[in-house]
Amino acid sequence: MQFSILEEKLSTHLWATDALISQCRMPEPSDRTTPAFTDPKYLPFYFYLGQQATPKKIIQIGPKLGLVAACFLQARKERVPKVERWDIVNELTHSYKPPIGTILANTKMHAPHLEVTAYSFRVENKQMYDLAFLTEKFDTIQTKAYLNYLWDQVKGDGLIVVDYIEDGTVRLAFDEFCLIKHREPYRMPTRYGVGIIIK
Asked: How far apart are CA 191 and CA 183, in angstroms?
């Protein structure tokens, strides 16, 4: 993984978000015009990451309507190895019910062969993953719980990619986690800040 290339692509704005998610399902058409979705330093980062990372199995907490997966897998379409499995973990909250149909459709858009599973955080999972995404903002306690969970799910030398590390509560949990695990993360200047930990 060449992190300097990732950062260079991010700074040159090679891809616009709309070009990457133009065929994706959205709850409302107006969602495509929000500042977050039009920011070239947000979702396009996951496309650039997909150009370099070579995972076969991925786990994600915070599916973001399947848009992170759509961008990442679009970059992997003509590359090997193919991503074989993408597992989505339901968040520790009952106040939000994600639109699973939309998430699954967007996730599989560029990888129809892909095995996609959504399961509860509390379900025992025997898979081991090459790449983990934490792409939603949580409070410090939840962020720590998710980071520890993902650490146990990722293979040695696997990647944990954490969004929103510029948010105070997430940053606190992220920095403390890296200190405990004796890891120096790579920090990417995306819209909300992304940290990448190599296990």
From this structure: 23
Sheet with 85-89, side-by-side order of all strands:
115-119, 85-89, 57-61, 129-134, 154-163, 194-198, 186-188
- Are 70 and 109 in contact, with CB atoms under 8 Å apart? yes
Residue labelled with tokens 């994706």: 24
H/E element, 72:
helix 67-76
- Predicted TM-score (pTM) of the model is 0.92
The CATH number of whichever domain residue 80 belongs to comes to 3.40.50.150
pLDDT tens-digit map of 19-69: 999 899 988 888 888 888 889 999 999 999 999 999 999 999 988 889 999
**194 - beta bridge partners?**
163, 188
Q: How many CA atoms lie within 13 A of 41 on its CB side?
A: 12
Look up the domain containing 89 and give its range.
3-198
Rounded to 10°, the helix 67-76/44-52 angle is 40
DSSP code of residue 182: T
- Domains contained in the chain, number: 1
| Inter-residue contact 110 to 72 (CB < 8 Å) | no
